[in-house]
Specification:
Elements lengths: L2 E2 L24 E3 L3 E7 L6 E5 L2 E4 L1 E4 L2 E7 L6 E6 L2 E3 L14 E2 L27 E4 L1 H5 L18 H10 L3 E4 L3 E3 L18 E7 L10 H17 L3 E6 L11 H5 L28 H18 L3 E4 L7 H14 L4 E4 L26 E4 L1 H8 L18 H8 L27 E3 L9 H8 L5 H16 L4 E5 L19 H4 L5 H4 L1 H16 L8 H7 E3 L6 E6 L11 E6 L5 E15 L2 E2 L5 E10 L3 E6 L1
Helix pairs in contact: 5-6, 7-8, 9-10, 10-13
């Protein structure tokens, strides 16, 4: 039988100067050896108490729906739940939880810090244009026996020498980890079942998921191991970007939001049904003060507690512009180099004015926030809506302008005709660092699968040529380059379009492919190094792009551009890149001169492969050519 005990009520402290809603900092459980303070945002007319171990503690209403209670003495190691009108949960801002996130855990967060955590340093990046982002899922990356990694499917896999060496050798300097907070679809008590999910089903937003830890029953283990992962990547010079999914919850009825303050955190339609802009059954209301506050404090918490270096906002178009700009401003106070980007769309109509939402066409209202370019992605490989339809890579004319729009980083350029761009008829990026350049990500087919479905009868040799051609467009783009993990290994997902809950047999990386296709890894590696070595490919400013990048007159289904006049202070005076997606060789007119060839027919060598001179060059089928003088 639980004891019912009355404890003293503490003032709202720890960074909150008053109990007003807009200043409430969501420190729902704050531990010290002498007392543990609980705070909660819940309806003023609710019955609220907190259960700690076997004790039930009434909470006291301060004002503005802020409740608080204090339990004296050292409560470390105990579990707790909030109960609001009979609904039990760990609250919305639990920092530590037990198995499957059903109860909060009282811990001393300092005890989760790995040795040297206080000396952990964020790897320096001068501009987002210098980032090379590698998107990964913890299980995909390390679960296969061929990985040779000990901690398969775990945070700790990314602390192992083989994993670190692979990433460093490839040349990426930012890891985008798919949702790594506590999510609902994987039962942490049944990990032997090997149930798989991407994790876009949030439960506790501010605690690492237990399925990626070595002991999900220990509330401290998941936190410590997540920090060890970040620390190891930082020591390797690699930043960590967290995928955040504030736009919806796993469901409504069982969500911690709904259990603590019913209907406050969600948008509703005019007929009182729940709006579904997320496509997952609900959408959160970022425009409401306390949801906005929650998002702000959550982002800051991941930065301060876990040293996170960037955020990818899932379905950012569900959120409002003001919230995203406020988050950006708050993050700037900590470190302006922390990169923020997101999907510039929603998955359905939102119960909020479209002109106020943080969609791609409003990126110009959100300085230093970036969005994915589906123009470049689908201009290269074909539309998201039809797996069988190709585009530039399939040799189909008409998408050259969409590729050019991606090459300039989504900014205004006199040689890009927006009327011919596939999705956007108006420029949306103010600066090229506001555009994520990519051809594949976890969503949709991976690149090799898409090439197979859109080009019937494709041979392995042709697939490799087009894979390398696609990534050449991405990594020579003025946007921020982004790649899906395993593309450097020529990964496939057995043709599955949406593998969010497919088994490991579909999603795993086959590390044996590094031996099967060494030329693929080498090309990716050298392409990334080429971008790093030459600032002409990462000018970072729209005006510099317009000044130094010019497109050449070319045949159909070819895109060619010149980076001229030592662009960005580059040691190469003029660089010409030609992307030929035709199945035949093409002759391209170029400014007359003598040039060194550094990329040709699937080989990159910055020291030079050969030389050419004159007014034209010949480009092999389905390959990129790169020359300079």
């Amino acid at each position: 039988m639980k004891k019912f005990i009355m404890y003293g009520v503490a003032a709202l402290t720890l960074g909150c100067t008053s109990p007003k809603q807009e200043e409430f900092c969501f420190d729902e459980m704050t531990y010290s050896p002498s007392e543990t303070v609980f705070k909660l945002f819940a309806p003023a007319n609710a019955e609220c108490y907190v259960v700690v171990g076997e004790d039930s503690i009434p909470m006291t209403l301060m004002n503005d729906s802020i409740w608080t209670a204090t339990m004296k003495g050292d409560q470390k190691g105990k579990n707790y739940t909030f109960v609001v009108d009979g609904q039990s949960s760990p609250g919305v801002f639990a920092k530590a939880v037990g198995i499957n996130g059903q109860q909060g855990a009282i811990i001393d967060m300092k005890e989760t810090n790995p040795e040297g955590w206080d000396k952990d340093v964020r790897p320096a990046v001068a501009s987002p244009a210098d980032l090379v982002i590698y998107e990964m899922h913890h299980r995909d990356f390390s679960i296969d026996p061929s990985s040779g990694l000990e901690h398969k499917g775990k945070f700790l896999a990314l602390t192992e020498e083989k994993a670190i060496n692979h990433l460093k050798s490839l040349g990426v300097n930012a890891i985008h980890i798919l949702p790594s907070y506590d999510f609902g679809s994987v039962d942490e008590t049944k990990l032997s079942d090997n149930k798989y999910n991407w994790g876009y089903d949030p439960v506790n937003y501010n605690v690492p998921d237990g399925s990626y830890s070595t002991d999900p029953y220990d509330p401290m283990c998941r936190i410590r191991e997540f920090k060890q992962m970040v620390q190891a990547l930082h020591q390797a010079g690699i930043r960590v970007v967290l995928d955040v999914v504030y736009n919806h919850t796993y469901d409504i009825e069982h969500s911690n939001f709904q259990k603590t303050y019913p209907d406050y955190y969600y948008r509703k339609n005019a007929d009182s049904t729940y709006s579904n802009g997320s496509g997952c059954g609900n959408e959160t209301a970022s425009d409401k003060p306390m949801m906005r506050r929650f998002m702000i404090e959550s982002v800051k918490y991941w930065i301060n507690e876990y040293h996170i270096d960037g955020f990818r906002f899932d379905l950012m178009g569900v959120h409002d512009i003001e919230t995203m700009n406020t988050i950006r401003a708050e993050v700037n106070k900590i470190d302006p180099s922390i990169f923020i980007y997101g999907e510039g769309w929603s998955a359905g109509s939102c119960a909020y004015p479209a002109e106020l939402l943080a969609t791609k066409n409003h990126i110009n209202q959100m300085p230093t926030i970036a969005a994915f370019s589906d123009e470049l992605r689908d201009g290269l490989r074909g539309p998201f809506s039809d797996d069988t339809k190709g585009a530039f890579l399939a040799g189909l004319p008409g998408e050259e302008e969409s590729v050019k729009f991606g090459i300039v980083g989504g900014v205004a350029h006199p040689q890009v005709d927006m009327s011919k761009v596939n999705y956007s008829k108006e420029v949306w990026a103010l600066e090229p660092t506001q555009m994520i350049a990519y051809v594949s990500c976890h969503d949709d087919m991976c690149l090799t699968d898409r090439l197979r479905t859109s080009i019937p009868g494709i041979t392995e040799e042709e697939l490799i040529r087009l894979d390398l051609l696609a990534q050449t467009a991405v990594f020579t783009s003025q946007g921020v380059p982004f790649m899906l993990s395993g593309e450097e290994m020529l990964r496939n997902k057995k043709g599955v379009h949406n593998s969010f809950e497919s088994p490991d047999s579909v999603n795993h990386l086959d590390w044996n492919n590094l031996q099967r296709y060494p030329q693929v890894f080498q090309y990716y590696q050298r392409l990334i190094q080429l971008r790093k070595n030459h600032p002409a490919f990462r000018l970072g400013k729209a005006e510099l792009v317009r000044q130094h990048l010019e497109f050449l007159d070319v045949p159909q289904n070819v895109v060619a551009f010149r980076l001229k006049d030592n662009a960005g202070g580059d040691i190469w005076k003029n660089i010409i890149v030609v992307l030929n997606a035709n199945k035949t060789s093409q002759t391209i007119a170029i400014p007359e001169g003598s040039y060194t060839v550094v990329c040709q027919e699937g080989v990159i060598n910055e020291e030079g492969i050969t030389t050419v001179s004159g007014k034209e060059v010949r480009v092999a089928p389905q390959t990129a050519l790169m020359i300079h003088n």
